Amino acid sequence: ATAPCAPRGALIVFEGIDRCGKSTQSNMLVNTLRSRRVNVEHWRFPDRSTKIGQKIDDYLHNGVQQDDTAVHLLFTANRFEKRNEMLRLLAGGTTLVLDRYSYSGVAYTAAKGVPHLDSEYCRSVEVGLPAADLVVFMAMPPEQAAARGGFGAERYEKLDFQRKVAQQYEALKDSHWLTLDATLQPELIHQQVMGAALPMVENAARGAPLGRLWD
Ligand code: Z5A
Ligand code: MG
């Protein structure tokens, strides 16, 4: 067995199609962890506050055209520009809860069906980022997600496209994924999230090594 590393924070990621409840559940998780005195930060990707993030926002929100490969690499660069800060916080014992991460990067771009932008290529450019200890995947039929309202405001918010994204996510699942029924009541989902997240926080505090994408 490998020797344990230094205590660290856990990396917990929320993923799923639009409107499945990632922001709701990641907020609830952060609040409950804080109430239990866990040192935790809440981030989202894309991080629209950086220069790269502003370009992404222009593309998603403001109809600015962009080459598919270029925009894919902007999303990736937006994670890499935060990589050192992520590593520093985790090493210092802060748990990071992320609202979307690399899995969104792969699933949304691969869903476009551009020949050279397949899932394998999309994963390859994420290599070197820290891997999540836990991916909470919030599963829900795209029709039901669309019925929650708010679809149509941004570029990818179309039912057909969301179906393709859901298929891409299916192919990414690994042993770190917890798939939850996102159509349940928020409080019920939260209990399941807590049941999975707390052991990850404890493992990380005991020095479980941080993984690397995509080992
Ligand atoms: N993207 C990409 O292409 N490449 C990348 O690398 C990354 C992202 C990182 C922006 O994402 C876009 O960027 C996104 C992927 C792409 N594509 N699109 N479009 P975003 O995270 O900024 O936006 P979003 O996915 O559209 O998320 P959202 O609209 O913020 O949805 P959410 O956070 O999953 O859901 P929510 O806001 O928590 O809840 C939605 C509504 O449902 C709201 O009214 C809630 O009150 C309600 N809700 C929540 N939970 C429940 C339950 N359990 N029951 C009933 N109602 C609920
Ligand atoms: Mg959200």
UniProtKB/TrEMBL annotation:
Coiled coil: none annotated. Transmembrane segments: none annotated. Keywords: ATP-binding, Kinase, Nucleotide biosynthesis, Nucleotide-binding, Transferase. Pathway: Pyrimidine metabolism; dTTP biosynthesis. Residues 14-193 form the Thymidylate kinase-like domain. GO terms for biological process: dTDP biosynthetic process; dTTP biosynthetic process; dUDP biosynthetic process. GO terms for cellular component: cytosol; mitochondrion; nucleus. One of its GO terms (molecular function) is ATP binding. Its EC number is 2.7.4.9. It is an enzyme of class 2 (transferase). Belongs to the thymidylate kinase family. This is Thymidylate kinase. It comes from Volvox reticuliferus. The chain holds residues 35 to 249 of 271 of the full protein.
